[in-house]
Amino acid sequence: MTADSDDSAAELRYALFRLTRRLRSARALDAMSDAQLATLGALRVHGRRTLSGLAEHEHVTAPTMSATVNGLAELGLVVRVPDEHDRRRVYVELTPQGESVVIETIRKRNRLLADLIDAQQFDDDELAVLDAASALLKRMADA
């Protein structure tokens, strides 16, 4: 890393931290934690998963994921489904209500971000920079 990239990294980290914090405040259910929303999102994108598969995906321990899933199950947002061939294996699956929570949270966050962009009254060149930055950030996130 060079001094320039260190400075860029620090500025980018701070901007992303503040923006992400604002976006996280928009959710369908105020009582839900970020971990619970992330778990619902993972189930929506990847379909049903085992508890250990979810824990690995979310980079948490199995007991932590078990507590997260228990809370989601109590809210009726996920169900546990036994494997048809191996009754010892149990999958966690999103319920229709859980799907609705994810969709509504995405809608609220997209609306908040769109409102923030609109409030800045960016010109076409600035909007193009945002589009380019989005592509670069996605590439970094996927690396």
Silhouette: elongated
Largest sheet, described in full?
A: 3 strands, antiparallel
Number of strands: 3
Radius of gyration: 19 Å
Query: What is the H/E order?
Result: HHEHHEEHH
Tell me what you see in this structure.
- This protein has 143 residues and is mainly alpha-helical.
- The chain has six helices and three strands.
- A three-stranded antiparallel sheet has the order 1-3-2.
- Strand 2 and strand 3 form a beta hairpin.
- It is elongated, with a radius of gyration of 19 Å.
List the SSEs and their pairings.
Layout: H1 3-24, H2 34-46, E1 49-50, H3 51-58, H4 62-74, E2 78-82, E3 90-94, H5 96-120, H6 124-142
List its salient traits.
143 residues, mainly alpha, three-stranded antiparallel beta sheet, 6 helices, 3 strands, 8% strand, elongated
Compact overview of the structure:
With 143 residues, the chain is mainly alpha-helical. Helices cover 70% and strands 8% of the residues. Helix 3 (51-58) crosses helix 4 (62-74).
